[in-house]
Amino acid sequence: MNKGKILIIDDEEKLRNLFGRIIKSEGFDVAEAGDCRSAMKLLEQVEIDVVICDVKLPDGNGVELINRIKSSQPLIEIILLTAYGNIPDGVQAIKNGAFDYITKGDDNEKIIPLIYRAIEKVELAKRVNQLEKQLGVKYSFDKILGKSRSIFQAIELAQKVAQTDTTVLLTGDTGTGKELFAQAIHQGSKRHKQNFVAINCSAFSKDLLESEMFGHKAGAFTGAVKDQKGLFEEANNGTIFLDEIGEMALDLQAKLLRVIESGEFLKVGESKTTKVDVRIIAATNRNLQKEIDAGHFRQDLFYRISVFQIQLPALRERVADIELLANHFLQLFSAKTNKRIVKISKEFLEALKQHTWNGNIRELKNVIERSVILSETNELLVESLPTEFHTTTSINNGKQLSAFDLASAEKIHIQKVLNYTNGNKTETAKLLNIALTTLYRKLEDYKIS
Q1: CA 31, CA 281: separation in Å to the nearest integer?
Q2: Is residue 374 over pLDDT 60?
Q3: Which of 126-135, 138-147, 227-236 has the highest mean pLDDT?
Q4: pLDDT (0 to 100) of residue 107
Q5: How does pLDDT run across 32-82, given as a tens digit for each residue?
Q6: What are the φ/ψ torsions at residue 264 (nearest 5 degrees)?
Q7: CA dihedral over 297, 299, 301, 306, signed as positive or negative
Q8: Both ends of the chain: CA-CA distance in Å?
């Protein structure tokens, strides 16, 4: 099994061959080059993990070559071979981005352990790079599903503001995807390689929220046994997402305003300011103008966070997207539950379209997950919808019944108990507290197999 690709750059052929034999014996693949030019050409053609490079080359200097290699292929690690006792070359090599250096004479016994450590660093860097790519895809604008005009307009606005450092306010009902939009804006910005940090302002008391946001010094309050960084520091040079900002206490709003205006804040129990460079994306399901009128939200803060405002549409305003979203969640939860559910019945889909969706996309996601768990076939049927679902469903003899209708609720309940007993009708009748003959009659009436 190949452990990695090593490139040896040295104009001494015998030394290259010696290194090559030693390194190959450890299971590594080896390539060789005698000068800078041939090395750079080979690097364009072959994927290399670690370079072992001499300082003195016929057409250049190994220390300077490090910069050229790193600028084109930053994940490659470079080990420099220096002349005996030439420490300055080694120090400069490290500054230029080399992994390490060894002096000739010590190389035979040190080179293999050094290569293994360099390979470990390369593999870690590759994994991180892959995860960053996956994260970028996961939270890109392409992952915001929808074809309705209202969602398209919201995406278009978000894409435009993403390229700036402007503060953004996302408004809309609960469950409309505000954090997904915030992530997409971050991934589409120049800050995408830095941290994205999210906090729900409604999840903490005022004092705890201040500590979470800005951090605290040891001894600032009971239980503060050590210094603690806040989320603004964690998000330095990146993005912080303040969800449910309308729930924030007024005096904490004043401190947030200071951060926006000056980039500075005080940790709890600290007298020295901390400076950060953070982009702020805020979100709320409240009408902040009404909150201002009621004295619950600072007008000056509102003006600062709403420089660019995006209203996210409720699901009831984008009925055309329900089928697309439902199929997406079906694929997601079918895979998670290891079920082969491949389609949604027309009745099920019609029921989804008639629903009011007060919980929006989050509610739809929950409904599909629940239905996938209950489903015993390769198709989502209307019977697996929650009994409290506000829609009409076709259940028996083509008759349309409300989900609150007794017959509809009874059919669904019987199906659930049957599922629980794995189809054991005697046990089902006992749990339902009805006669077995009554159960068989109801199964026939409701066409439950």
Answers
A1: 49
A2: yes
A3: 227-236
A4: 56
A5: 999 999 999 999 888 899 999 888 889 888 888 888 888 888 889 998 887
A6: -125, 150
A7: positive
A8: 55
Q: 30 by DSSP, 3-state: which?
A: strand
For the chain, the helix, strand and coil percentages under 3-state DSSP, each to the nearest 5: 50, 15, 30
Q: Give yes or no for a contact between 5 and 48, defined as CB atoms under 8 angstroms apart.
A: yes
Q: Over 60: is that where the pLDDT of 241 sits? A: yes
Q: Give the CB-side neighbour count of residue 407, counting CA atoms within 13 A.
A: 15
Cα dist from 346 to 145, 332, 340, 341, 408, whole Å:
21, 20, 18, 15, 18
Instruction: Give residues with Cβ within 8 angstroms of 172, minimum separation 6.
Output: 178, 285, 311, 312, 313, 314
Find, among 233, 226, 178, the residue nearest to 202 by Cα: 178
Which DSSP letter does residue 226 get? S
Q: How far is CA 11 from the centre of its chain?
A: 47
Which amino acid, residue 30?
V
The answer to whether 395 and 345 have CB atoms below 8 angstroms apart is no
DSSP state of 241: E
Contacts of 88 (CB under 8 A, 6+ apart): none
The three-state secondary structure class of 170 is strand
Structure token digits, residue 81:
């071979």
Structure confidence by residue, pLDDT tens digits, 301-357: 999 999 999 999 999 889 999 999 999 999 989 888 888 898 999 989 988 988 888
Domain architecture of the chain: domains with CATH:
5-135 (3.40.50.2300), 145-313 (3.40.50.300), 316-445 (1.10.8.60)
Under 8 Å between Cβ of 389 and 403: yes
Q: Token digits for 3? A: 């452990």
Q: How many CA atoms lie within 13 A of 411 on its CB side?
A: 23
Structure tokens at 317: 């305003």
**How large is the angle between the packed helices 406-420 and 436-445, nearest 10 degrees?**
120
Q: Exposed, middle or buried: residue 392 (CB in 10 Å: 0-12, 13-18, 19+)?
A: middle
Q: How far apart are CA 334 and CA 84, in angstroms?
A: 63
Q: What is the mean pLDDT of the chain?
A: 85
**Contact status, residue 401 vs residue 393, Cβ threshold 8 Å:** yes
Buried/exposed 100-137: b ≥16 CB within 10 Å, e otherwise: ebbbbeebeeebeebbeebbeebeeeeeeeeeeeeebe
- Calpha distance 224→213 (Å, rounded): 15
Q: Among candidates 323, 316, 310, which has minimal Cα distance to 147?
A: 323
C-alpha R_g of the chain:
31
